[in-house]
Amino acid sequence: MLDNLISEFDRGLRTLFAPASSARPHPDRDVAEAELSAADKRHALGLMRVNHCGEVCAQALYQGQALTARDPAAREALRHAAFEEVEHLAWTERRIRELGGRPSLFNPLWYTGSLAIGVTAGLLGDKWNLGFLQETEHQVGAHLDSHLSELPAQDDKSRAIVSQMRDDELKHADMAQQLGAASLPLPVKGMMKLSAKLMTVSSYRL
Ligand SMILES: [Fe+2]
Ligand SMILES: [Fe+2]
To answer: Which ligand is nearest to the CA of 172?
Structure first.
């Protein structure tokens, strides 16, 4: 358990402070950079910062859940999904830099909160843990869908990234379902939407 904690702590520091890397090629690698107005660039940057912060949260949630999940198959699936979330982290991080910005200052705060939520979900038992994961991935998928229409029309690079992420998140939701996710009570889903909204508003700006 102590070894686990130390390695998760190390992973946390890396998520927050070290550049992430991707085994898969970045989805926008063959897409040309478009000419964006200053306003469009700012908007795309804000949206990609939100998505990056979302991926920081995903790291923390998955880590927390993997620490406390009981079933070895569930733990393994969580680790595999977390690996893909690191790739999402790498893609959004690079895109933020290309758009001339930096990641959200609130990342450490959301990371810590999400880790606590992940640990709690894991402690409730595997079916709730997986239910929470499934609902998170559903909500993130829907959110990314909205970004596909919100991103500036010419910003095909950001759109290529968001679109691949959306596909991955829906796959993660299916994985959770297959592993036996329970459906969460409506008020819990509502609370999750509310905290996601707070995260979105804060990281868009700073
Ligand atoms: Fe992701
Ligand atoms: Fe995901």
So the answer is: 2
